[in-house]
Here is the input.
Amino acid sequence: MESRTEYQQKKRKKKKLRFRKWVIVVFLLFFLSIFIFSAYKLYSWHNDNKEIETIADDVVKDTKVKEKEDTENTENINPPDNRDNDYWNYIKMSLLEVDFNELLAKNPDTVGWIQVKGTNINYPIVQTTDNSYYLNHAFDKTSNDAGWVFMDYRNDAVNFNQNTIIYAHSRLTGSMFGSLKNILNSSWYTNKNNHIIRLSTPIENTMWQVFSVYTIPKESYYITPSFNSNEAYLEFLNTIKSRSEVDFSGTVNTNDKVLTLSTCQDNFGNRIVMHAKLIKRETR
Here is the structure.
């Protein structure tokens, strides 16, 4: 016959076993929930990518985009004195002209079309009253975490500000601004023909010469749209030019207008940034 002490020891042992079983069950449920959540996020990510690529393909297919030779309406902007500057080669390149009728019918928020040489960036640009809506909505305004390419709501899409800012997510598939990371590869920046951005709007066609590319922790300085004085603007231009990880021939001064492209580099808040200056425009 077992003693009271032995009985209590067995009872405690059973309690410990039951506790361990519950701990194991809780851990299993915890890891199962993580697995299910991760699987759902992966499915959503894949589905968003598939949908955004379909939307982008349809937009490109339905939009008339053509090379545009210079006319009497073409204007070279703020030419440098130095004839060795690559500016003089870039202004010989053709502009891009886009038919916006279909785009505006599909989405009245459309303000332009951007194409960056040496990347996959070839999309219409949208703009609304904030900088959050198109972080999780596609061009057709359906909910999609891939978002779309959009202009800062503070910018004037008709009369460009001193600094016009364009954003998009950096998708791993290379869609949206996912291929902007290419600008930090030598295969991109050693090819001078890549140092051009072409942007078409309903009222004009423009060309921009890249003068700075870099990565930087999240900040608000480089996305300042306008400045109260020439001194402040010059300081800004000198700052963003000096940040460049590539030595471009392009120079900048307070007579220039800047186009800034910005996207996430990683999940820690770092950004990939490209700056270009307006060198040619043509009224449509």
